[in-house]
Amino acid sequence: xxxxxxxxxxxxxxxxxxxxxxxxxxxxxxxxxxxxxxxxxxxxxxxxxxxxxxxxxxxxxxxxxxxxxxxxxxxxxxxxxxxxxxxxxxxxxxxxxxxxxxxxxxxxxxxxxxxxxxxxxxxxxxxxxxxxxxxxxxxxxxxxxxxxxxxxxxxxxxxxxxxxxxxxxx
Length: 170
Fold this sequence. Notes:
Blueprint: H1 2-36, H2 53-66, E1 69-74, E2 79-82, H3 94-106, E3 110-114, E4 117-126, E5 129-138, H4 140-169
């Protein structure tokens, strides 16, 4: 009976663990986006354009600090900078860029889990112009942690059953 109780407790615990870990990742990414976006304020209007080395530097630094894919769009949805190395490849990340560009045009803000990624979309005002900063971070580490817990369940349950049976027969 103890083994079944343990199994039921762990089975109920795993989805809560997964939810908590993903929400924590999302909150951390949102906080990082908020604090790191201040570096964009240091750029001039001339530097806030496609192929600007200064903008590319700021966006790459933001990527390194957050470990997320970072992109910056103007109010019309045009990509100004994107840390996706395949940005130039047709079809590579195109759906995400299309979604992000639509969010940029709409002026929407977002912090959500989308297709296994923590996604944060922030609107920034720089020199009176609106820009959209998007960060997308895969939740692979969260999935791996939950997978480890799930794969350990049968062994933990068997071990608990052995202990329960041996203490019950004593």
